[in-house]
Design a protein that fits this description.
disulfide bond; Thioredoxin_domain; alpha/beta; redox-active center; Thioredoxin-like_sf; signal; 40% helix; 7 helices; seven-stranded mixed beta sheet
Length: 169
């Protein structure tokens, strides 16, 4: 009987706290999403459109993460492997840390301060994250050479669809 209760509790916990897969995969960003501002390491606020423009002509992977997120930290070595396997593509990290100090400490602690990093200083809920149905981290998106969404939803850099999409592009 105790085993049944434990199993039921486990199932309930998983269903309550698991990522909810978006029902539709979007292929481009809305004007409002692209206008969303995000903070760079130097403190400058940029629109998402400016970041995508900077990578135009190249495949871009966006890694949504936070330094408090255990799964995000566990994914970092696989992200590094994906980068090493595909040196022709660009990577950016979009952080959902709760404070600027927490974000900066996380970048140093997890040795990604030298990468291209941005922080959602307005918090989790904003026009960009709402548009892409971001409800959990980690999350990965593949953006094609024209700034359109090629892979809308992946929760791991090991998702075989990421490499498949890179190869197709």
């Amino acid at each position: 009987m105790n085993l049944k209760i434990a199993f039921a509790t486990l199932l309930l916990s998983v269903s309550l706290f698991a990522q909810k897969v978006p029902t539709t995969s979007k292929i481009e960003f809305s004007k409002e999403a692209l206008a969303q501002k995000i903070t760079a390491l130097d403190g400058k606020k940029l629109q998402i459109a400016e970041i995508l423009k900077k990578h135009e002509g190249r495949i871009l992977i966006i890694d949504f993460w936070a330094s408090w997120c255990r799964d995000c930290i566990l994914a970092l070595p696989s992200t590094k492997e994906l980068k090493e396997k595909n040196p022709e593509i660009d990577f950016v990290y979009f952080s959902l840390d709760r404070s600027h100090e927490q974000w900066k400490r996380g970048l140093e602690k997890y040795e990604i301060a030298g990468e291209e990093n941005y922080w959602f200083d307005e918090g989790w809920k904003n026009n960009f994250n709402n548009y892409i149905d971001l409800n959990w981290v980690p999350r990965f998106m593949v953006i094609d050479q024209t700034g359109k969404i090629a892979k809308y939803y992946a929760i791991s850099p090991n998702d075989p669809d990421i490499q498949k999409k890179i190869d197709e592009l």
